[in-house]
From TrEMBL:
This is GrpB family protein. PANTHER family: GRPB DOMAIN PROTEIN (AFU_ORTHOLOGUE AFUA_1G01530), GRPB FAMILY PROTEIN. InterPro entries: GrpB/CoaE, NT_sf. It holds the Pfam family GrpB. SUPFAM superfamilies: Nucleotidyltransferase (SSF81301).
Amino acid sequence: MGSSVIVVQYDPDWVRLFGKLQDFVLPVLSDLVLTIEHVGSTSVPGLAAKPIVDMDVVVSTQADVHTAIQRLATLGYVHEGDLGTSGREAFIPPDNVPWHHLYVCTVETAEYKRHILFRDYLRSHPEDSKMYGFLKLELAQRFHNDRAAYTNAKSEFVNEILKRTGWK
């Protein structure tokens, strides 16, 4: 079953929250990081989303990934492993910051490239973004208590958008 699915209308505070979270992790990662990207639906202006900020911390090498894991632990992040997505390391945030999803990966990681392609496409195609938002709101009602079914039901739309970006 999984936890309930809640999708809400876009909130401009998500951008500010991303900035605060970025500022929180940057002091321990600044010499490693190539970029920290706000990804996922909260990063697309106007898009309905689950109210959880997603951030990709991007580094150069796998050795940098391991260093980042150790340094994030000093802030209270708990490393969860790749959660089934190769090349992307996931973390549980510390109790003293708002809940969010933080991932560390290298710039060559397929999941990172997919995140950026999808985000940038939706940012530059407001009609498709609006359709995606309507779909997510409808699916969140239909699959309120089944996160896996919700995710599976959006995959056709997501894959169609990725195809338009040239993603293989």
